[in-house]
Structures are given as structure tokens and as C-alpha cells.
Design brief:
The complex is a heterodimer.
Chain A lengths: L7 H12 L2 E2 H11 L8 H13 L3 E9 L2 E8 L1 H31 L6
Antiparallel strand pairs in A: 1-3, 2-3
Helix pairs in contact in A: 1-2, 1-4
Chain B lengths: L2 H5 L2 H13 L4 H18 L9 H23 L2 H34 L5 H18 L3 H20 L6 H6 L1 H16 L12 H22 L7 E3 L2 E4 L3 H16 L3 H24 L1 H9 L8 H41 L1
Antiparallel strand pairs in B: 1-2
Helix pairs in contact in B: 2-3, 5-6, 5-9, 5-10, 5-12, 6-7, 7-9, 9-12, 10-11, 12-14
The chains are: A alpha+beta, B mainly alpha.
Chain lengths: 115, 343
């Protein structure tokens, strides 16, 4: 993947898979947990993201299981996916740090009274 | 309700409906993910639910479109398409340069005398810049100038609309060529640079020869009685014809040198020009007849504009699908033959 910024669903799916290999439904649940219920990925969105990440080499299939006659495929992060997630995480952290600093400066200018 | 439907559980019915929605996805995606997606959708569904909720349905359909577009984006970003776009960009810009130049010498004198049409100068100038910049590999600049060139061609033709809409229709293929060059230029902006197309000098030679034929016709006979050898007062043969035949042979040779995959894609990319010309000739034949005979011009209706605007992209989409299908079929036939040989 060559784009400079990553869209939120992509970032969240990679974050979910950073912990351990997971199947589709577990990723949806994990993303809900990570975002405190703010983001619920739907199947169409999830599998569009998974397909793109596989094509870009950021994730790969870990293993397949059949549970209750249904296919369950586990995905894991690749080394490239690990690097891309680390880069994105650093970028977001850097921006958040700047935002925090500016908010502190602003509030001190306004005498600790948030506008 | 039939017996089958009655015996179908809510779970089965929900699954059937999800699978029906899944048909919106391309076959490759369904083969790879359908079972997983259906399992996830069913796992997330509330017990007793029979129908997908609106948001799930919309999510599946929107993402089916996204996956399809991404698939087409991948296909159209392939090397063969980019090389074809490069040929169309260069050959199209050269062609438009030739079209712009062929009228320029006759009009340059009035231009100097002040009775000029600035667009007559701007048209060849802008396409000459596109050719130079494209050959220099400045992709973004080439796209910007090609877009400006397309605007110049549109303005050039649009000026006739109020008094002669039929002339606008007759020139719509030329505007399509200009738009095609702009689109081909934009196509080449992203991704790795494409080397200058093979056979570009053959294309240039073809245009020079065709230009020579037109000059012969125009100079010998002028615009009014142009293009014919007159014997005993009757037109026999256009003197430019040998030139045009040689030009066609040179252009054909340049096209042939591109190799099969690029050749097919060049045809697909230029199909919109043939499509719009055919649409004007056959679909607008009645309009052209009426428009030229009524004392006041008949303007195009919104539906007619819509048809004109939709024709080039629709023809291209059809041609691209045909190229894709043809190549898949050829690959299958090759595989079959190889399997036969192995036996």
C-alpha cells in the first residue's frame, strides 16, 4: 500500500489483527471493543478491507476451520502490515501530540477557560 | 405461501436473502469470501430475523460496487492499458495538431490582417505543446495542457451551436478525440512512467502524409470544389487519395507494431470515437435532416444530450469488457491446448 494516510476501518482492522490472528466475526467484535462501541464494521466493509489488505500484502491467511458447517478463516498481520501499522500509529501519535500541545497553549492563553 | 417456504426456517430464509445480495459481488470475490461473509452476517444477526436490515443490505451493495470498481481499476492500471493510453495520447494529440494545422495557413493571413479567429491558432498550438510535453515525460503538465486543449476544441465547436446544431453533431467525434487525449493523459499520471510508445514516428509520418494529401486537395481545387480530379467537367478521383491510403498504411503499421494486448486496448480506447460517429450518423439521422432544412435551427433536447454524453463511456465500457472476455477465453483455450499436449 503506497497511500500516505490510512482510512479508519483499515487502521482498526490492522490493530485488531496486531493482537493475534482472528476470523472475520472476531475482528468485528474486537473493533467494537477497541473503539468503545463507536465503530461497528459491517460484513461488506470488513471483507472489502480484508481483500484489499491481502492484495497489498499487509495481511495473510493464518488458518481455516469449519465450525458448525461454516468456514472460519483466520487472518494475521504480515511483516509489511506490522510496519505500515507502526508508521500509521506514529503518524497519528505525532498529530495528536501537536493537537494536545496547541490545545494546552490555547487554554493557557484564554486563562484555562475552554472556549 | 408454499410448503417449501413454510418449512424454511427464519435462519434459512435470512441466509437465502444474504446470498442473493452477494450476487452483486464479482465472481472472484464470491468464490473467495462468500461462505465467510454469510457466516459473519448470520452470526451477527438477531435470532428469528428473516430479512437483512437496511444498513447491512446497503453496506453489501455499496461494497460490492467498491470491489468491482477496484477490480476494474486494477485491470485498467495494467501495463498494457497504460501503454495503449500512451499511444492514444500521442497519436491523438498529433492528429489534433494536424487537424488544427491544416486550416491554419489559409487563415493566418486574415489573422495578421486582424480578421482573425484566435482559436484557429490556439488549437494547433495547444496540441503541439501536448505532444512535446508528453514526449518529455512531464505527465502532469501534459494532462493539464490536454485538458485545456479539450476545452479549446469544445469551445471551437460550441460556437456553432446556436445557428447550426447539426454542425456540432458532425464535429462531436473530433471533440471525443480531444476528450480521449485528455483522459488518456490523466490515466498516465499515476503509477510508473510508461516509455514512449513504439512506432510513434510511424504515426507522425502517417499524419504528415495525410496532411500532404489534404494540402494537395485544398491547394489544387480549393475548399468549394475540393478533392477531385475533374475530367470533362466531372469529378473522377480525389488527388489526395493515394496520400490518404499511404497514411492509413503507415498508421496501421504503427498500430500493428504495438503487439496484440496493446493493439486490442488501442481499439477499445478509440471505440468511443467510432461509437459517437455511428450514433450521430444513425441515431441522429432524423435530427440532422430536419435541422438542416428548417429555417430556424432546432436545438438538441436534454434526452438527446444525455444520449450523446453517455455514448462514449458506454462504448468504451463495452469494448473493455469485450477485450477482457476475449483475453480470458483465449487464455482458457491456450490452457486447454497445453493440457492436451501434456497428455
Amino acid at each position: 500500500m503506497t497511500d500516505a494516510t490510512m482510512r479508519e476501518p483499515t487502521f482498526l482492522v490492522l490493530t485488531a489483527l496486531a493482537a493475534e490472528p482472528q476470523h472475520g466475526y472476531a475482528v468485528i467484535e474486537d473493533v467494537r471493543r477497541i473503539t468503545d462501541g463507536r465503530v461497528t464494521l459491517r460484513a461488506g466493509t470488513l471483507y472489502a478491507v480484508l481483500d484489499r489488505l491481502r492484495n497489498d500484502g499487509l495481511i495473510e491467511v493464518d488458518r481455516e476451520e469449519v465450525v458448525n458447517s461454516r468456514l472460519r478463516r483466520y487472518y494475521r498481520l504480515t511483516a509489511l502490515g506490522d510496519r505500515r501499522l507502526a508508521d500509521e500509529s506514529a503518524r497519528l501519535r505525532h498529530q495528536a501530540t501537536i493537537a494536545d500541545r496547541r490545545l494546552r497553549e490555547r487554554r493557557s492563553r484564554l486563562g484555562d477557560a475552554p472556549a | 405461501m408454499t410448503g417449501d417456504a413454510q418449512s424454511m426456517t427464519a435462519h434459512d430464509e435470512l441466509e437465502r436473502r444474504y446470498r442473493r445480495l452477494m450476487t452483486a459481488y464479482p465472481r472472484r470475490h464470491r468464490r473467495e469470501y462468500e461462505e465467510e461473509m454469510v457466516a459473519v452476517l448470520l452470526a451477527a444477526a438477531e435470532p428469528g430475523k428473516r430479512r437483512p436490515d437496511l444498513r447491512d443490505g446497503a453496506d453489501l451493495l455499496v461494497n460490492a460496487l467498491v470491489v468491482r470498481l477496484r477490480g476494474w481499476g486494477g485491470v485498467l492500471g495494467a501495463e498494457a492499458w497504460r501503454r495503449a493510453a500512451s499511444v492514444v495520447q500521442l497519436a491523438g494529440a498529433l492528429f489534433l495538431l494536424g487537424v488544427g494545422l491544416h486550416r491554419l495557413p489559409l487563415r493566418l493571413a486574415p489573422f495578421l490582417a486582424g480578421g482573425a479567429d484566435a482559436l484557429d491558432v490556439a488549437r494547433p498550438a495547444v496540441w503541439a505543446i501536448v505532444v512535446a510535453v508528453a514526449l518529455a515525460g512531464l505527465r502532469r503538465v501534459a494532462t493539464g495542457v490536454a485538458m485545456a486543449g479539450a476545452v479549446v476544441e469544445v469551445v471551437h465547436v460550441a460556437r456553432w451551436y446556436d445557428h447550426s446544431p447539426s454542425q456540432v453533431l458532425q464535429s462531436s467525434w473530433l471533440v471525443t478525440v480531444a476528450l480521449l487525449v485528455a483522459v488518456a493523459s490523466a490515466w498516465l499520471v499515476g503509477g510508473p512512467p510508461v516509455t514512449a510508445p513504439r512506432g510513434r514516428w510511424w504515426f507522425a509520418a502517417a499524419l504528415v502524409v495525410a496532411f500532404g494529401g489534404r494540402v494537395v486537395d485544398d491547394r489544387l481545387y480549393g475548399y468549394s470544389s475540393h478533392l477531385a480530379l475533374i475530367v470533362e467537367g466531372r469529378p473522377q478521383v480525389r488527388l489526395g487519395v493515394p496520400f490518404y491510403l499511404i497514411a492509413a498504411a503507415l498508421a496501421g503499421w504503427a498500430w500493428w507494431r504495438q503487439g496484440g494486448p496493446v493493439r486490442r486496448r488501442i481499439l477499445a480506447l478509440t471505440a468511443p470515437v467510432a461509437g459517437i460517429a455511428a450514433m450521430v450518423s444513425y441515431g441522429f439521422a432524423g435530427f440532422m435532416y430536419s435541422s438542416q432544412r428548417f429555417p430556424s435551427p432546432i436545438l438538441l433536447q436534454p434526452v438527446q444530450w444525455a444520449v450523446l454524453l453517455a455514448t462514449p463511456p458506454a462504448v468504451f465500457a463495452l469494448a473493455a469488457v469485450l477485450v477482457d472476455r476475449w483475453e480470458r477465453l483465449s487464455a482458457l483455450v491456450r490452457l486447454g491446448r497445453q493440457a492436451e499436449n501434456v497428455r
